[in-house]
């Protein structure tokens, strides 16, 4: 049997997911996945190799045609490192210590912070972790205008952590709406191990 997967323009990890579904849909035969970037090519190739299938790759006008030859069944998805972005900023940790951005007008600062967190949901790659401490914890509790944006980030794999001491200090621990509660040891560890950090 033969199946073709046109994964051009699809965001990671969709080319891998669609390729695996196509492989599962046939007993034996060939699946050709077409992708338009190097990262997708590498990820689909890793999938095929991890399943012990023969792979042949051809490039034509900026597109990669990945032929995968299936000659045995698939039990389960192997553990593999799917790299979705080559940018070193994928290991970015953001520390937010107040509920507004910049100095001067508090009202304007809150508008800017809301805009900043929304923009994080629209720009790739996503940060690895966002840490909230001191007044920043007001952004993760009931009444915050950015909860849905933070939930979107969390749904996309961004780790959201808030300082437990800070939540206790402001008496809002029971109002936490997104992410988990952390401690200073973990916060320091996350910052020390990050390749890139931003403090707001």
SSE layout:
Layout: E1 2-6, H1 14-24, E2 29-35, H2 38-50, E3 54-60, E4 63-70, E5 92-96, H3 106-120, E6 129-132, H4 147-155, E7 159-163, H5 164-169, E8 180-182, H6 184-193, E9 196-199
Parallel strand pairs: 1-2, 5-6, 5-9, 6-7, 7-8
Antiparallel strand pairs: 2-4, 3-4
Helix pairs in contact: 1-2
Q: Which range best describes the helical content: under 10%, 10-25%, 25-40%, 40-55%, 55-70% or over 70%?
A: 25-40%
Task: Identify the CATH architecture of the largest domain.
Answer: 3-Layer(aba) Sandwich
Average pLDDT taken over every residue? 89
Rg calc: 22 Å
The major sheet is characterized as: 5 strands, parallel
What fold name stands as the CATH topology of the largest domain?
Answer: Hypothetical Protein Ychn, Chain: A
Could you tell me the number of beta strands?
A: 9
CATH class of the largest domain: Alpha Beta
Low-pLDDT runs of 5+ residues are none
Helical stretch tally = 6
Order of helices and strands: EHEHEEEHEHEHEHE
Distance between the termini: 55 Å
Strand order of the largest sheet: 8-7-6-5-9
The structural class is alpha/beta
- The CATH superfamily title of the largest domain: DsrEFH-like
How much β-strand is present in the residues? 15-25%
Number of domains: 2
Global outline:
elongated
Pfam families: DsrE, TusA
Protein name: Selenium metabolism protein YedF
InterPro entries: DsrEFH-like (IPR027396), Se_metab_YedF (IPR019870), Sulphur_relay_DsrE/F-like (IPR003787), TusA-like (IPR001455), TusA-like_sf (IPR036868)
Domain UPF0033: 5-29
In short:
The protein has 200 residues and is an alpha/beta fold. It contains six helices and nine strands, in the order βαβαβββαβαβαβαβ. It has helices at 14-24, 38-50, 106-120, 147-155, 164-169, 184-193; strands at 2-6, 29-35, 54-60, 63-70, 92-96, 129-132, 159-163, 180-182, 196-199.
């Amino acid at each position: 049997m033969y199946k073709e997967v046109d994964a051009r323009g699809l965001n990671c990890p969709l080319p891998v997911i669609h390729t695996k579904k196509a492989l599962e849909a046939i007993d034996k035969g060939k699946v050709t996945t077409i992708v338009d970037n190097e990262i997708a090519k590498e990820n689909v190739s890793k999938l095929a190799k991890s399943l012990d299938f023969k792979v042949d790759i051809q490039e034509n006008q900026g597109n990669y045609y990945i032929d995968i030859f299936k000659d045995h069944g698939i039990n389960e998805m192997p553990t593999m490192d799917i790299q979705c972005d080559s940018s070193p900023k994928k290991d970015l940790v953001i520390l937010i210590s107040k509920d507004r951005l910049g100095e001067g007008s508090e009202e304007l600062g809150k508008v800017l912070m809301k805009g900043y967190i929304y923009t994080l949901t629209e720009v790739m790659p996503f940060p690895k972790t966002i840490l909230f401490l001191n007044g920043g914890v007001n952004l993760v509790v009931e009444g915050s205008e950015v909860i849905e944006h933070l939930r979107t980030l969390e749904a996309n794999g961004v780790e959201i952590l808030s300082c437990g001491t800070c939540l206790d200090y402001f008496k809002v621990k029971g109002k936490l709406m997104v992410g988990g509660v952390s401690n200073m040891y973990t916060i320091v560890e996350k910052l020390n191990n990050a390749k890139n950090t931003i403090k707001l």
